[in-house]
Amino acid sequence: MFKLIFKQYKTKSSSPDLTDVINVDDIDIKQNDPQKNTNNVQRLIISNEQNVQLIPGIKKPSDWRAYALTHHPGIIIIRNPFTERGQRYWTARCLRDYPRKPNIVNLNERLFNDAVRSDWWKQLDQCNDRDEFQRIKAAMRWTTFGYHHNWDTKLYDEQMQSPFPEDLSILCRLFANVLGYCDFKPEAAIVNYYPVGSTLSGHTDHSEPNKSAPLLSLSFGQTAIFLIGGPTLDEKPTALYLQCGDVLIMSEESRLCYHAVPRIIKTQKNWNSKLTNEDIDDADNGSNLLDMDLFQKVGDSNFWQPFSNYIYDSRININIRQVLNPGDLKLS
Ligand SMILES: O=C(O)CCC(=O)C(=O)O
Ligand SMILES: [Fe+2]
Questions:
Q1: The Fe2OG dioxygenase domain covers which part of the protein (predicted)?
Q2: Residue 1: what pLDDT?
Q3: The domain that contains 29 carries what CATH number?
Q4: Range of the domain at 32
Q5: Given a cut of 70, is residue 26 above it in pLDDT?
Q6: pLDDT over 70 (residue 36)
Q7: Is residue 130 a part of any domain in this protein?
Q8: pLDDT at 259 over 60
Q9: Number of separate domains in the chain
């Protein structure tokens, strides 16, 4: 069942029927519209915003809109809690910084030299040859940091670790704390890059020794159709849109359920629109929780241009996990 639905959305020959894809925005806008598929969506009240340390680029938790899917207990979607500048900052971190050494990128050593693999973004930005640009862009699919996942053995490797970025750790702990997961420790991350046309097939994430901590997933750039299914491939999955800035939490029963990205959809969002006053105030608040130099610079349209060129037809996803069980100091 899962594979059939995946295929329907992936189809290249014709545009798929999107009427069943849930857009969590619809629950607030069109409560009773029978055309909109929202009967599985429930708005969540966020009450746990005391004692959370706010960071630049994020709206106040009382302004967040969070939703649960009643047929998939443990799935929570926070609909874009980022400011426009916040979305730009994390996009730039994923493109410019996170693929750098000692983090690992998927680019093959035989096909791409060290300079490209370590400074992928710069090479792409400076590339004048259209074919070469497309070749690098299509080849770059993921980068990992924290504990590295070995894709062959499907195990995390104690010997292979790179530091987990402090800003991303603070961001993840903020989301986890507001949702009541006060002990969440971000220890491993995969950044997935999805040029339009790319997909991620159905899988479960079960390599982490800790399978009870939630998994956090952040989306930037173009919109994904995301499928969330059950514990086996037999259950029919639910399709929903993940848009720029959305935060998806897979917890409880859904933590180990099948999921996939069958399609990336190009939306009309203007990635170069002017920043609002909220964004401008945020940049001067004296915080040192983020790379404030980058946070300032993404407001400059010349600096931001190459990043907006990339997300013009691509999506970026950051997938964050806790690996160790509480009390464990090592993997094995
Ligand atoms: O891109 C996404 O939304 C999901 C990525 C994912 O499932 C993974 O990296 O394990
Ligand atoms: Fe996954």
A1: 185-324
A2: 94
A3: 2.60.120.590
A4: 2-106+141-321
A5: yes
A6: no
A7: no
A8: yes
A9: 1
